[in-house]
Amino acid sequence: MRTRLWIVLALSALVLSACNFPGMQATDLPPAENIETIAAKTIAAQQTILAGTPRPTITPAAVTLLPQETTPPPPPPTDTAAPGAPSSTPRPTDTPGTPCNRASFVADVTVPDDTAFRPGDKFTKTWRLKNTGSCTWTTSYALVFADGDRMGAPDAVPLTVSVAPGQTVDLSAELTAPDTLGTYQGNWQLKDDKGKTFGIGDKADKTFWVRIKVTLPGGITYDFLAQASSATWEYDTGTETGALTYNGADDDPHGVAKIKRDLKLEDGRTTGTVLFTMPPHNNNGSITATYPPYTVYSGDYLKGLLGFQAESDGSCGPGQAVFIIRYKLTSDGTVHTLGDWRDSCDGKLVKVNVDLSSLNGEEVQFILVFDADGDYHGDRGVWSSLRVER
């Protein structure tokens, strides 16, 4: 079909071109029906020729798939910005480096938290720290008090050795427990050679501390029998006063003060160790003991038993006396009476139980007085188990 179309087109072109041939006129052209006849005959002749010519066999060609050509990505743009100019490409944020001065707490070498001390006790607190910074701690660095309870601490304690990054060191401060019962905490840091303070933690802004409890042990906190030899003993006859020899002879006319044991008491019991006293051999005479200072705290009680030594048959004669306990404030020297107990040989002991809490924090000197209260005969006074306890 395609071939026929080409033949028709060719003949049409030939006819049209003939119009331009010299000497040929339009009237010389065959009629239109003759043109169609000629074309038809020409097409028939071409078909006859083609029918006699063998057509070539078209064999499909083998197709080889070649790798797809990949266009390489364009190279990254070169940063040609002037130094200091902002880059068009975002850069990652830098990680901060290790600070120059930083420490970490390792251990309490001495005085763990809430260690108990008596009022006024001196102690050494030692911390073990590690240098986690990038700078060496030289001897120009110091351990410094930050805030809280100072406990007698100095402002600063210079380091005695250099501590390189990664090393540990033991640092100490000499401290004193406060005089009042309670819990106390002092906070500490370090100071560098430029006077800048730093501490522990990632930001080097935390303190390390010492925390103690100021208490007194339970039980007996002051024993009058154990302290008797340290007391100042005096006698008063009413007309004469003077120093009384402690642990003197039993027949000393100025009086007697000594520790005895295994005495028979007016109630029939036999004593252990007791403080034994007798007044001067004068009516209305007395002996007095002023004891070493003691600081009183809330919860302290003065306790003991008072009475007379009896004869072997249990009698104690006309014994009658007054047991007096006073105290003197060391702050102003004033003397006050805690109590006085008038006793006679009646077969009963007097129990002493005085709450001293109102004197909390006061330093006092206890004063014992044994007064004949008239006739001194038979006045063999016994202070049994006299103590302060908590």
Unreliable spans are 1-71, 76-95
Helix content bin: 10-25%
- What is the radius of gyration computed over CA atoms, rounded to a whole number of angstroms? 61 Å
State the separation between the terminal residues, measured CA to CA: 133 Å
The tally of beta strands, per DSSP, is 22
Per CATH, the architecture of the largest domain is Sandwich
Tally of helical runs: 3
Shape: rod-shaped
N to C succession of SSEs: HHEEEEEEEEEEHEEEEEEEEEEEE
The name of the CATH superfamily of the largest domain reads Galactose-binding domain-like
CATH class of the largest domain: Mainly Beta
How much β-strand is present in the residues? Answer: 35-45%
CATH topology label of the largest domain: Jelly Rolls
Largest sheet: 7 strands, antiparallel
Features of this protein?
390 residues, mainly beta, Immunoglobulin-like, 7-stranded antiparallel sheet, 6-stranded mixed sheet
What can you tell me about this protein's structure?
This protein folds into 2 domains: 103-214, Immunoglobulin-like, CATH 2.60.40.10; 220-389, Sandwich (Jelly Rolls), CATH 2.60.120.260. The chain is 11% helix and 36% strand. It has 3 helices and 22 strands. It has helices at 2-18, 32-52, 224-227; strands at residues 103-108, 115-117, 122-131, 142-148, 156-158, 168-176, 182-191, 197-198, 208-214, 220-223, 232-236, 241-243, 256-261, 273-278, 286-290, 294-295, 301-308, 320-329, 335-344, 350-355, 363-371, 381-389. The chain is rod-shaped. The termini are far apart.
